[in-house]
């Protein structure tokens, strides 16, 4: 299942990449050259770690990497590692020509995709949806063929996977299931894509047509995002307080809360490996790219995995988990692939043989190994919440709905880095600056922005300067910034950060409308009037007086508006009317939000926002619908 021979172009590219790392042109990559590369890319790594990486890549034990050894790694690893290498080099060299693979190739060219990912995702989906009656027409899919790409074409499997990753995202009643036509299929795909966007997937440049045609690289890219969101959902302190067991000396809960899910997973693996008396797997860089790039080199020989499984397997102390003893016999197996297979057989006994094949373990496929480890964590965290009196548990409030919505909105626009924690991840303002660009406020990246890596000394000063610049740009954007200073963003002051982020999201929403309306200014009043007018013209009775109108709580205005925009789309038998309980209102709101997405709007708001009439989110719902309504003609 390896992706075959390297093409001529790839080979040439490899040679070019190799040549760039090989500074003294002696035909080998030595430790100092790798070290230089990492340093220049902003990720200095201690010497012992560089040597460890070299050792892992070095087949003939001469402590340096020849081009042939370099090729083997690249071939084994598939494109993911190669891509990361390229990214590092891009940063170093400016643009490096990329041949053969997808990212820069133009329309119409063949996009390559990873067969390993296809195999892994198909097996995951087959199990996840095996009991879902709505998916039996395509399940189980054969992981060895391209049936995945035709199976996702009607949108049902995608909707189901989104809803599994973030439960209750999609109202069951809105999925078209029977007698599908091109139109109802398009609706399902809209629902899937807009819902994926609402849970934070970056879905720019993917359309319903791409999914209908089953374009492999786009389908796999979207599925990976959806699956990852589900796998990472509980790797978060407020959802699992036992993660505090990973606190190190001198760290506070706040420090730990700032870590990304990837970092927490690494910590977790380290924690168990240390307890097993096995060497640590990572201590160098928390940069996600590098976790993906190097960490699974350490897992490649499966021995760390054996220890990890042995540590986390149930010990029979909890009633619902009978004891499972990991058989370590395979640990001393000589052959890497056979050892990996033996390890995976033990994982299977824990119900965790997922995502990786022996070949993926041996090749260190970063994505799939990460998914494997995340799944192990989810099933068997094997952590105990510490009883430490110094820990301030009060901090662990979990994020509010509003915070999550803002975060999903940013991530769906593809900000980099991914925002895991709204305040902590905005403290250097880089994400905020990217959002300014999305609302067409020019950002002077070269002269006004400090970019990472930040110097060891004065890091915070650099970040603060960015924050000051972000506030300055807010004035250009004519935002209301009373009492907001760069320091507040840098401190992660919730109220003030939210105030700025909301104005960014609001402007973004209005800009979309304005573009549709040939540049005509749009404000709340214009939207309210449009809503009233559209409802009245369609003979619908609801109307709204403002986005605070308590009547909105029933969602009837939203549902009727959807039916006005796309006549016949609403099934009135499903709507609760009259004197509504909170539960009735929530049912209506769920239906309304999913329907809005199904007719093609990218709504980020949640059903609860309608029920509770949260004016900001209500505004975004009506604005999105107005945008959709204006496209009608
Ligand atoms: C989505 O998830 C919720 C909660 O798990 C479930 O009740 C609902 O039926 C699911 N909807 C779909 C479309 O599968
Ligand atoms: C690991 O990182 C910690 C904190 O940065 C440092 O104190 C420690 O010396 C490092 N350990 C090794 C083995 O480099
Ligand atoms: C955030 O800023 C507001 C307004 O200046 C202030 O009242 C509040 O105390 C600050 N919050 C924190 C946690 O510092
Ligand atoms: C429609 O919206 C406007 C808000 O600009 C409001 O003044 C008016 O009363 C609304 N119309 C109805 C019929 O409620």
From TrEMBL:
Q: Name one GO molecular function term.
A: calcium ion binding
Keywords for the protein's UniProt record, in alphabetical order: Actin-binding, Calcium, Cytoplasm, Metal-binding, Phosphoprotein, Repeat
Give the SMART domains listed for this entry: CH, EFh
The residues covered by the EF-hand domain are 9-44, 50-80
Q: Enumerate the subcellular locations listed in this protein's record, separating them with semicolons.
A: Cytoplasm
> What is any one of the record's Gene Ontology cellular component terms?
actin filament
A GO BP entry is: actin filament network formation
Q: Does the keyword Cytoplasm apply?
A: yes
For this protein, the record's InterPro entries field holds:
Actinin_actin-bd_CS, CH_dom, CH_dom_sf, EF-hand-dom_pair, EF_Hand_1_Ca_BS, EF_hand_dom, Fimbrin/Plastin
The domain of life for this entry's organism is Eukaryota
Secretion signal: which residues? none
User: Calponin-homology (CH) domain location, by residue?
Assistant: 115-231, 259-381, 400-509, 521-630
**What is the annotated role of this protein in its UniProt record?**
Actin-bundling protein.
Which PANTHER family does UniProt cross-reference here?
FIMBRIN/PLASTIN (PTHR19961), PLASTIN-3 (PTHR19961:SF32)
Q: What is this protein called?
A: Plastin-3
What organism is recorded for this protein?
Answer: Mastacembelus armatus
